[in-house]
Amino acid sequence: MSRQGEQAYRQIQQETPISSSARDTDYVQCVADHVIAALNDEDRVSAVWEVTVFDQDQANAFALPGGKIGVYNGLFDTAVNQGQLAAVIAHEVGHVLADHSNERASQSTIRNVGVAAAQILGASSTALQVLNSATQYGIFLPFNRTQESEADSIGVLLMARAGFDPASSITLWENMSVGAGPSPPELLSTHPSPSSRIEDLKTRLADATPLFQAARESGLSPDCSR
Ligand SMILES: [Zn+2]
Predict the structure, then answer these.
(1) Which of its termini does the chain have fewer beta carbons within 10 Å around, N or C?
(2) 188 pLDDT above the threshold of 80
């Protein structure tokens, strides 16, 4: 899966414009570095973590097996601060840690349904290219509801351990429910409604907040800005 993830990533890098903004790239790298540093040793060394910012006007991001992370610069309108960006990246990393792509790889019929659904829902041609690149390698994008919940659960703990306020995951989803258009990695998931997701995340704060406080007390205080 790691090899397939890397192949898909290289293809997406060739097909999708990459941001030329050092400011944006440094910002995303800063947040991702903090999130990755919060992984346990085994997870951290299990992948060659890499981040690319794509020049694409969609509120979205993805992470592929092997630790390949992509963030679209359209996300900055929705994830408006480092905590909210950390929530997105940690969620996507959560999918990788939980091996969700592997679970998906055998579901080839779902893949076809997903591409059709993306077309109906009006995903951009670049979005469809990304989708096709990923499906070609068996790394398909839709996650089911259980997987989304798992990624939320992992993500909120991970961001907290990195020293980002886990409450930012809630404001992120509030922003998402207002503004996000169709976009590939999350578009095709059978998402819980934003409101039930937010309720779910609120209950997870009981576990995440002490981790956040401990991280802050140990001196972890990320300072990433655009
Ligand atoms: Zn997800």
Answers:
(1) C
(2) no
Q: 194 with 180: CB under 8 angstroms?
A: no
3-class secondary-structure state, position 159:
helix
Q: Where do the structural domains in the chain lie, given as residue ranges? A: 2-217
Residue with tokens 């694409």: 56
92, 148, 150, 186: the catalytic one is 92
What pTM, to 2 d.p., does this model score?
Answer: 0.84
- Residue 92 annotated to the active site: yes
Q: What is the pLDDT of residues 44-90, one digit of tens each?
A: 999 999 999 999 887 888 898 899 999 999 999 889 999 999 999 99
What Rg value do the Cα atoms of the chain yield, rounded? 16
How, if at all, do strands 68-72 and 61-64 pair? antiparallel
The pair of three-digit structure tokens given for residue 172, joined into one six-digit string: 């992120």
CB contact set of 150 (below 8 Å; sequence gap of 6+): 94, 98, 100
Distance separating alpha carbons of residues 71 and 156, to the nearest angstrom: 18
Signed CA dihedral, 165, 53, 128, 151: sign only: negative
